[in-house]
């Protein structure tokens, strides 16, 4: 990460590491916490809920990065500090309603589709401005930035283009008055260096930290 920052002429302090702990058991996460990692990302709401309960004795933060169905919102609101996969209005409404009921607020990142892969979820870049305006009345949701999954490809330029597109989306939103949308969660074990070179403020790394699943 530091080397990628140096190549991009960025301070290493500009980029955070988000360990992706999905499928790894509690002892592995406790070892990671002992080494100083205290913020973990999970794909599945149920796994996030269960690990949060098992490790409640530690001051950990849990982030949901996988797809969230509206019927799972309750667990996520109670156990996660952030959702990085907000991709539709119905989910935003469900999150806001549950947060209001619990007297809570939550930071969220909007997932943006930056490739043509059918398997990739996310809001289309051209729909972002209208989506942001729709969220303005939801006071419990604090939109902090954008998230994406790059195309799965050996073509570095294709991967780089996905990350560049997300940065451009963020820049356009800020120019339109949405200054709080500053974070860019992009890059995983196989492409985090490219993501950093293209402006990532957070990389989501699992297997490069914990080993193969």
From TrEMBL:
<dbReference type="InterPro" id="IPR029066">
    <property type="entry name" value="PLP-binding_barrel"/>
</dbReference>
<comment type="function">
    <text>Pyridoxal 5'-phosphate (PLP)-binding protein, which is involved in PLP homeostasis.</text>
</comment>
<dbReference type="InterPro" id="IPR011078">
    <property type="entry name" value="PyrdxlP_homeostasis"/>
</dbReference>
<feature type="domain" description="Alanine racemase N-terminal">
    <location>
        <begin position="26"/>
        <end position="212"/>
    </location>
</feature>
<dbReference type="InterPro" id="IPR001608">
    <property type="entry name" value="Ala_racemase_N"/>
</dbReference>
<dbReference type="Pfam" id="PF01168">
    <property type="entry name" value="Ala_racemase_N"/>
</dbReference>
<keyword id="KW-0663">Pyridoxal phosphate</keyword>
<comment type="similarity">
    <text>Belongs to the pyridoxal phosphate-binding protein YggS/PROSC family.</text>
</comment>
<protein>
    <recommendedName>
        <fullName>Pyridoxal phosphate homeostasis protein</fullName>
    </recommendedName>
</protein>
<feature type="modified residue" description="N6-(pyridoxal phosphate)lysine">
    <location>
        <position position="22"/>
    </location>
</feature>
